[in-house]
Amino acid sequence: MPAIARHTEPGIVCRGGPEAAPPGDPLPDAAPRDICREQPRRVLILVENLPSPFDRRVWQEATTLRAAGYAVTIICPTGHGCERRHEVIDGIDIHRYRLPLEAAGAAGYALEYATALAKTSLLVGKVLLTRGFDVIHACNPPDLFFLIGGFFKLFGKKFVFDHHDLNPELYEAKFGRRDFFYRLLLRLERWTFRAADLSIATNGSYRKIAIERGGMAPQRVHVVRSGPSLERMRILPPQPSLRHGRAHLVGYVGVMGRQEGVDYLLRAAQRIVKVRGRDDVHFGLVGGGTSLAELKALAATLGIADHVTFTGRVPDAELLAWLNTADVCVNPDVANDMNDKSTMNKIMEYMALGKPIVQFDLTEGRYSAGDASLYARRNDADDLADKILLLLDDAARRRRMGAVGRARVVNELAWDYEAPKLLAAYASLWPSTSPRRALARIT
Length: 443
Known about the structure:
Blueprint: E1 11-16, E2 34-39, E3 42-46, H1 56-67, E4 71-77, E5 86-89, E6 92-97, H2 106-129, E7 135-139, H3 146-153, E8 158-163, H4 167-175, H5 180-195, E9 198-201, H6 204-212, E10 221-223, E11 248-253, H7 262-275, E12 281-286, H8 292-301, E13 308-312, H9 316-325, E14 328-331, H10 337-341, H11 345-352, E15 357-360, H12 363-369, E16 373-376, H13 381-392, H14 395-413, H15 415-427, H16 435-442
Parallel strand pairs: 3-4, 3-7, 4-6, 7-8, 8-9, 9-10, 11-12, 11-14, 12-13, 14-15, 15-16
Antiparallel strand pairs: 1-2, 5-6
């Protein structure tokens, strides 16, 4: 794997006179009166939909920047296991705010995003007066942080847009319509791209959106995929107790929301258990979200509640236990414009652990998994069930597919391959101010 170089473009702080010399660092006789020393660039990351360090992509970006010499601050909401309003983890300063609710309907999202914008703005002011920042790195949703980034560009700050979700398509996936709010989201997306000094895309499809729909110059759009960390996604011995006395375990990890298609997975489970009579299969569903209670009720209605374990949000150790025990892992994301163009973290996490996958046939899902996955007909729960059983009944095929996926992550898709791309994107923000050149000009 490529080494992650220390690759930051520090600012230069200049002070006049001998008093500028650091303690214990006397001025040489021939030294100029103006002493210049390096100060790290300061990055302020804004994220709304998940707390840090729970948000895996954001945390990997933050730790990569920190390791490369940047000073990093994160503003994010609180969440389960991340309740403290302020803490420092691995040298990263984290400020959190409480949201009034976890939104479900359109009105709820409007309230959530307005509250998040207001509380984020207050914390941005606090950080400005304490640590300061040179770059605002905004992660969506929502596409509202351009209001903060654009304002501070007036004062010489840089604005980086980290494009996590296609919000217009996400709205359509959640509510099934292209109305005034859909058109508003397109406009907000466009304004975000116009305000950004550069955009970070999670895949080629998102890069195309940034260029064609967002109007960004191609050289200002950098693809940085959400590759899994092999230090975090560790292969461990299975825990047989998680199978609940059954021969096989089918695993899922992700958000419990409508567009994630977990209802399709539950209907596939019903076909496996009730129609095909397979009492030897258990399902472990790891994750939380606004639809969790609704999905538990659906499992009971389908008569498969005793074959399904919903864990809610859990620490990494428990998540790894479930995935390492699973024989097959499933990505049931609904086939729609949003999911077709999006790269799902869960797919590459499954691959990192050497797990064979079953998913619906979506463009970016197929690009990521390749031969490590079987592909069911789009939004067809029966075919999803049949593909799961095909793998459960063929251990040799599971091993081959798992090995293919693991090798693809180790050799191509792990975060170690993406980290240099993130640092290269940041270096492009200051193309003419390398530390050596800056010092040469001053001295």
